[in-house]
């Protein structure tokens, strides 16, 4: 009992989602090497001065042929607002992530007292507030950045009906940007999505597609993921982990799935309790390709094994290392504009300084949380 409860909590802590049924999805557009950006130069032309997602190169590229760097558990911060909780996966919030060039935000949602809240495992462990408020803050950014397309991935931990998510999207104002695919095999270019002002693509786990809110997309109808809860630097690979019925990567791509790389490393602290690992973060979040565990290497390996550019990548502590460079390399971009550096956004002590000093503090609280939970049951 103790162990099963701990496992349940821990798997949720890391960000587990249930598995959904699968339907065929978009055929990825031209297969192109991560290292050969010229592959998309043949698409329909757009204004030469246009910049999409920080680069003119991306305007004509299909949505599903772009690598989006993403913040895993983007709402769960290890900063002053959470008492530097070790349950936090990020030092900087989603607005800073978007400013820095990330275009993919993942978070976990719970139904607490009939309100959707961003909670990590449990609202007693780390509560980042109502989903609606967070969406409103993201919406502010989207309003202010009319040439950017972003993607959201929400883990529906309590299997709440899609209509409840639709309410939060509507209240936040972000639903007006919602993109609804018209085909499961063809995605438009970024410039087409920008022209229609449908610039937010939202995936949610454990929902059924709804005609009332067609822009809220069941994740595993569209995306397959590589394994998570990786504990060793050599543990990252490109195997399809979820959904179980996607088949091999080549089968999944032939059915139109897009690939998501989970590239975050956890660390065992006690019993079955894992936390995001900051000790190896400079290796794990490096765009380099020459060391075991490098983000750049993992992306390159998946690109080679899949013969497709990975669409989504999730990292912890995105401001550490060179995560956005890794996406640029995958996209073949070296001309990015309009990003702000993390340093210039940072208030207070730097994230790197916070790593060692906050660890013990939060650890006690985390262990106490699990001890209390286990005792209650
Ligand atoms: C991030 O923090 C800034 C400054 O506190 C705030 O203005 C912004 O709304 C926050 N963004 C999110 C998504 O919470
Ligand atoms: C939900 O309700 C319970 C019982 O009234 C309360 O203890 C808890 O703090 C509430 N949760 C939130 C997030 O308000
Ligand atoms: C843009 O909007 C028009 C009119 O609603 C629609 O026919 C078209 O499919 C949309 N294009 C994209 C890329 O969503
Ligand atoms: C990839 O990692 C998962 C989880 O550790 C493992 O089950 C699977 O066998 C690995 N795939 C390969 C090809 O080694
Ligand atoms: C690995 O590559 C990075 C640049 O991508 C370089 O700075 C570093 O020196 C290389 N390390 C080794 C051991 O070759
Ligand atoms: C950062 O600090 C400056 C100056 O103290 C303040 O004006 C600003 O609101 C802060 N920004 C954030 C995002 O907290």
Automatic annotation (TrEMBL):
Print the keywords alphabetically: Signal
Q: What is this protein called?
A: PLC-like phosphodiesterase
Listed Polar residues bias regions: 328-339
The protein's matches in Pfam families, at most eight in alphabetical order, are given as:
PI-PLC_X (PF26146)
- PANTHER family noted in UniProt: PLC-LIKE PHOSPHODIESTERASE, PTHR13593
Q: Is Transmembrane helix a UniProt keyword of this protein?
A: no
Some GO term, biological process aspect, for this entry: which one?
lipid metabolic process
Q: Which GO terms describe its molecular function?
A: phosphoric diester hydrolase activity
Q: Please, which domain of life does this record's source organism belong to?
A: Eukaryota
UniProt xrefs under InterPro entries = PI-PLC_domain (IPR051057), PLC-like_Pdiesterase_TIM-brl (IPR017946)
Comp. bias (Low complexity): 33-49, 340-357
Could you tell me which species this protein originates from?
Trichoderma gamsii
The signal peptide, as residue positions, is 1-21
Provide the residue span(s) of the region labelled Disordered: 33-53, 328-357
């Amino acid at each position: 009992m103790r162990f099963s409860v701990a496992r349940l909590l821990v798997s949720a802590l890391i960000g587990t989602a249930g598995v959904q049924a699968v339907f065929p999805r978009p055929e990825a557009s031209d297969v192109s090497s991560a290292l050969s950006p010229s592959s998309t130069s043949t698409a329909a032309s757009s204004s030469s001065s246009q910049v999409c997602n920080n680069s003119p190169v991306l305007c004509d590229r299909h949505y599903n042929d772009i690598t989006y760097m993403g913040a895993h558990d983007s709402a769960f911060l290890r900063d002053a607002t959470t008492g530097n909780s070790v349950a936090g996966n990020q030092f900087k919030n989603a607005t800073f992530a978007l400013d820095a060039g990330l275009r993919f935000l993942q978070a976990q949602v719970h139904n607490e007292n009939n309100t959707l809240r961003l909670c990590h495992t449990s609202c007693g462990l780390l509560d980042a507030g109502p989903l609606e408020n967070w969406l409103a803050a993201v919406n502010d950014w989207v309003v202010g950045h009319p040439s950017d397309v972003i993607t959201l991935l929400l883990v529906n931990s309590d299997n709440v009906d899609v209509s409840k998510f639709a309410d939060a999207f509507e209240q936040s104002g972000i639903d007006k940007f919602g993109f609804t695919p018209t085909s499961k095999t063809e995605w438009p270019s970024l410039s087409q999505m920008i022209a229609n002002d449908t610039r937010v693509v939202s995936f949610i786990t454990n929902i059924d597609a709804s005609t009332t809110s067609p822009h809220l997309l069941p994740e595993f109808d569209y995306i397959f993921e590589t394994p998570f809860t990786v504990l060793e630097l050599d543990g990252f690979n490109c195997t399809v982990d979820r959904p179980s019925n996607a088949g091999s990567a080549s089968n999944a791509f032939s059915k139109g799935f897009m690939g998501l790389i989970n590239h975050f490393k956890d660390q065992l602290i006690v019993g079955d309790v894992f936390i995001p690992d900051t000790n190896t973060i400079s290796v794990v979040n490096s765009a380099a390709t020459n060391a075991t565990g490098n983000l750049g290497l993992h992306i390159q390996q998946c690109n080679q094994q899949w013969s497709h550019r990975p669409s989504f990548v999730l990292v912890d502590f995105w401001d550490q290392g060179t995560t956005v460079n890794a996406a640029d390399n995958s996209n073949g971009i070296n001309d990015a504009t309009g990003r702000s550096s993390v340093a210039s956004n940072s208030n207070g002590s730097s994230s790197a300084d916070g790593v060692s000093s906050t660890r013990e503090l939060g650890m006690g609280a985390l262990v106490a949380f699990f001890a209390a939970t286990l005792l209650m049951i």
